[in-house]
C-alpha cells in the first residue's frame, strides 16, 4: 500500500489512494484482523507530477503575505509540504520494515499519512477557491533531502523528520493562521487550523517511537537526538519555539535548545 502511494505522481490521486489505504488499514484493525506487514522496496524518491516545476529554494519566488498573490504563493508552498509529508509518512513503513516494531507504530504512521492527505486536499481547495491551484507556481526542490539522508538510519529519520521538521511546523503555523485570519480567507484559515491541531500528533508519534528505540537499545535519548540531528540536519534550529505545543508532543526543551548554537555555524 505504501509503495503504491509513493509511486503515484498526481497529488489528488496520491492523496485519494492514501486515504483509501488508510481506511482499509483501520477497518482491518477495528475488525481485529491479523495484518501482515510485509516487505517492499520503496522508490528512492516518490513520484511527482509534471507541475509544479521544482527549483532550488533560492529561485523560488518570495512569499509576501500582504497581497492575494503572496498569500497564494504561501498556500502553494504549504500544499507542497503537505504532499511531501504524505510520502514521508508512507515511506517510513517499507523503508524500515526489516526492523520489527509493535503494530501501533504502523497505526501511527498510517494515521499521520491519512491526515497529511486531508491537509493537502484542504490547502488545494483553498488555493482553487482563490483561482489558483497546486502546480501553478514553482516549488522547493529539496524536500526529499531529509528522507534521502536518513534512508538507512531509522532513528535518524525519526529525529529529523517528525522531531525537527514537523516540530518546526508547530512553531510557524500560528503566524500563518494570523495572516489568513487578517485577510479573511476562511478556507485557508480552516485548513491551517486543522493542520495545526493534527500536526502535534505527528511530532508526538516521532518522539514516542524515537524513545521506544532508544529504550530497546539502552541508549540515552537526548544525546542520541543531538548526535543524529547534527549529523543529518543541515542548518540551525531557529527559535522562537512553540514550547507549549512541543511539550504536548513530548519534546522537552533540553532536546532542541542545545541545537540552536551548534547548528548555527
Ligand atoms: Fe500536514
Ligand atoms: Fe505531519
From TrEMBL:
Residues 50-62 have a biased composition (Basic and acidic residues). Pfam families: DUF455 (PF04305). InterPro entries: DUF455, Ferritin-like_SF, UCP012318. Residues 33-69 are annotated as: Disordered. PANTHER family: 3-OXOACYL-[ACYL-CARRIER-PROTEIN] SYNTHASE-LIKE PROTEIN, SI:CH73-314G15.3. This is DUF455 family protein.
